[in-house]
Write a structure and sequence with these properties.
Length: 368
């Protein structure tokens, strides 16, 4: 067996039957130009037993002696013996019949790229973010993937990973202990010195096995809405971007884009998830939002937290950011437009939420 062209990498934890099925699906491909790697993050189920039964020279199983958290994502990529490594969530499926198409891409248009991002089918629907074949570098490439925060479908040039400096490697080992998006930050650092290739090719089917995250904290006996967790996650975006070289105009653009994204994630998108929760778990869901919830106050706090953090780490001075925002009509109009849209969407969802909440409360009163 010669050197494979592509490593299909599955970090896993406690999904024995699912990961077994996904590995066996990949191994139906008949060529020896792929390998399949599983890095088990010290599962407590029967993952080790069931995967140890697979006898195929293209399959490699590794098990950590302890759970090392998100560092596992970096660990598995270092085990690759191929030119390129595809990173996958352990519940997601490779579309095996398209492996030849991906190999052709890696041998052709994307052969010299540092990161390749393929399209993922989400909940049975094609993600149309990549509706064309495109090669980009520098600011454009990083801006394109900045909020593509689902790891399945990222393909890394393995040599580019090995070329990262010791300082970068140490950064990942420290950072990834508490970071959710290690795979994204790895891509960003690689793209400092190479290019991104995005493809419309659908190569992965995403399966929704887990529950959606809801940002709350527990206070005085009840769950209370809080965007702080989401803000903390996206502060780490700034930490990573601060290791890259951008113009001040580009940095200000990233700050604005970050504010808009966290507004969206923490307000209408969060409320949609909350509404889904209250429908399925009414006793839990009605605790999420207080009756005096004010979306504009929440958005102001999010903005202040992000702008202050970008200033504190030397990424973008606060005064310079606001001078530009208030001094250019186009930017200010964009800012107001985004803010007003989020407010409208959130208030509409709030009406739906309170209606469901009061119906649940009324039904409980009637039963009593």
């Amino acid at each position: 067996m010669g050197k494979p062209k592509l490593s299909i990498c599955y970090p896993t934890y406690n999904r024995a039957d699912i990961i077994y099925g996904n590995v066996m699906r990949c191994l139906k491909y008949e060529g020896d130009d792929i390998e399949v790697i599983v890095q088990d993050n010290c599962s407590t189920d029967h993952t080790e037993k069931i995967l140890s039964e697979i006898k195929d020279p293209r399959f490699h199983y590794y098990r950590n002696s302890e759970n090392i958290g998100p560092v596992n994502l970096m660990t598995i990529l270092t085990k690759s013996q191929a030119n390129f490594a595809l990173l996958l969530s352990d519940e997601d499926e490779v579309i095996v019949e398209r492996i030849p198409n991906v190999l052709a891409l890696l041998n052709g248009a994307a052969s010299m790229c540092g990161v390749i991002k393929t399209t993922v089918s989400v909940f049975g629907k094609v993600n149309t973010k990549y509706d064309d074949e495109k090669k980009e570098s520098g600011f454009s490439s990083i801006n394109r993937i900045l909020f593509h925060t689902y790891m399945s479908g990222y393909i890394y040039n393995v040599d580019r990973i090995r070329c990262l400096s010791r300082d970068d490697t140490n950064y990942f080992r420290v950072f990834s202990k508490g970071g959710s998006y290690v795979f994204l930050y790895l891509a960003i650092l690689i793209l400092r010195n190479t290019s991104l290739y995005t493809s419309s090719l659908v190569f992965v089917n995403h399966r929704d096995e887990g529950e959606h995250d809801i940002s709350t904290y527990y206070f005085n006996g009840k769950h209370v809405y809080s965007p702080d967790g989401r803000v903390e996650v996206f502060r780490k975006h700034f930490d990573c971007l601060n290791r890259c070289v951008f113009s001040m105009e580009q940095k200000k653009f990233f700050v604005r884009r970050m504010i808009y994204a966290v507004w969206d994630y923490s307000c209408p998108e969060w409320l949609s998830t909350c509404i889904d929760s209250i429908k399925t778990k009414p006793d839990y869901g009605i605790l999420f939002i207080d009756d005096d919830f004010n979306i504009e106050k929440v958005m102001t706090k999010i903005e202040n937290d992000l702008v202050d953090y970008a200033d504190s780490i030397g990424f973008c001075p606060k005064q310079s950011f606001y001078d530009e925002l208030m001094g250019e009509d186009d930017l200010l109009d964009e800012y107001k437009k985004n803010k007003n849209q989020i407010v409208r969407e959130t208030n509409k969802l709030l009406e739906e939420y309170y209606k469901i909440k009061f119906e649940i409360v009324d039904s409980k009163v009637l039963k009593v």
